[in-house]
Request: fold
Amino acid sequence: MRNRRHAWLIIGVLGAVLVGSVLLAVALGAVRVEPLAILEMGLNKLGLSQFQPFWRPADETIVMQIRLPRVIGAALVGSALGTAGVLFQGLLRNPMADPYIIGTSAGAALGAAVAMMVPLSVKFYGFGLVPIVAFLGALGAVAAVYNLARVAGKTPVISMLLAGFAVSALLMAIMSFLIFMGGELETRLHQVFAFLLGGIAVTHWEQLAVISPILLGAIVFARLFAFRLNAFALGEEGAAYLGLNVERDKVLILSSGSLLTACAVSLSGLIGFVGLVVPHAVRLVLGPDHRLLLPVSGVVGAAFLVLADLAARTVLAPTELPVGVLTALIGAPFFIYLLRRTRGQYAF
Amino acid sequence: MRSDICGTTSLELRNVTFSYGDGFYIRDIRLSVNGGEMVALLGPNGCGKTTLLKLLSGIYEPAQGSVLFCSTDLRHLSRRQIAQHIAVVPQRFDIPFAFRVWEVVLLGRTPFIHLLRGEKQEDHEKARLSMELTGITELEDRMFNELSGGERQKTMLALAMAQQPRVLLLDEPTAHLDISHQVEILGLVRKLNREQAVTVVAAMHDLNLAALYFDRLVLLDHGAVSADGTATMVLTEEAIKAVYGASVRVTQHPTSSVPHIIVLP
Reply:
């Protein structure tokens, strides 16, 4: 990234692609709405203009109350997963790392399963009990993994990977046990399965109002660590020779990545593949420099998930597919194409 | 060229003891290295060369005694402050990502880059200068992982020099290199030592190369200094027999006034 103008150009172009994806996703569905109408509605709502509505009031309700929050939710989740994937792959120096690797998915899944069995109706800024407990479960699991891997003031990444694997297995076993013993097996299985596959569950603007400051704050915070993540490529000892306070930076990078993942989980359940594939795809095209990789993966993740969610609700309409199925269906072949294109010389 | 602003002594080990657990690895070592010196640490595998380098870089903290840089105890300096003065080229480094040489060298500026402000033009200039010093300017856009062993070692030296260090610690800089690259790397290190006034402390396995390129040799045996001085003083048949347990004949190097060691099988 020696040419800053070059970097800004890439981010600008991808930003335009993201805006285009959002417009497309809001326009399409059971009822089609003109993109121009969407733009004018949006500007009117923001108080920036007073266009005469040439659209039906029902269209405005569909756009403003149903589609736009969902599409923006998808963009936020995608950017969170793309960014978190880069953070975990970079910090752990592991190509298989994704946002869920050190326990977030299992913690969230167990949390969700427990919440589903509690006959308690909670409404907190548009969130039900399931996303709230899943959010806490994800963060709790990472905290447990980090502390279990910590020996004599140090938390080697390899210990963290292994502890993450063990804790995940344990939590998933507890979750399976709870579902199996809890009664109403079929209903529970269906609910849990839907959570594991993931789907953008944003129905209220309030949800976005709560999550987006945390999520965007974590993305901005993580970007500060881009250069240090490059130094982490030399290993923890190498990073220490370059003057980093390795343990402190590790905690900060892990915390922001886990917070992003937990935010994503609370809006959408466990959407796979975005956090794994997007960073790899961006790295293959633009190289591994985190100063460019972090922001670009966020934008690409957002656009990718917006389009995947659009496909999830339109391909087999009126049946809605779980978006996790779509992300794997689109992401896996694309990833294989990228791998093949480098003719087996893949250094990630 | 920069003058050494902290007087003559650059690094000092004051009665340093260190152990990994049960056995003692470093026993009560006293050693002082002057600014601008070029010192080789010698000794058999497991004698404490690498451990000593880690103590000198502050990665390990001595159990007893203290390590001083410019009369300041390393314990009183942050990692960032240490890295602004002491650069380390470890024996093993692997970078899992496809970084380019330029990006790797720029990492040498890490201890100077502020978290919020990011890197400055000055950092780019210093990284560029460091690549010129080590003669790798033409490699800048190559993938680090695709370089040969010698090119990698030069890149790591460029990274270290981008820190503009007063002290360069090298852990077996010629390991896994062929003869011509061994000579090239040591020649480069000596050039940096002479022209950039960088103090060099290097762990070395090859006694003959150490004799040829280093002004001062320190022979370690079971975590203690067994001989310290010029090549002629340190590399004697008796000392090598005692420390390495190997029978050798010490002769004169044909073109240089240093001892040359021939192994007797």
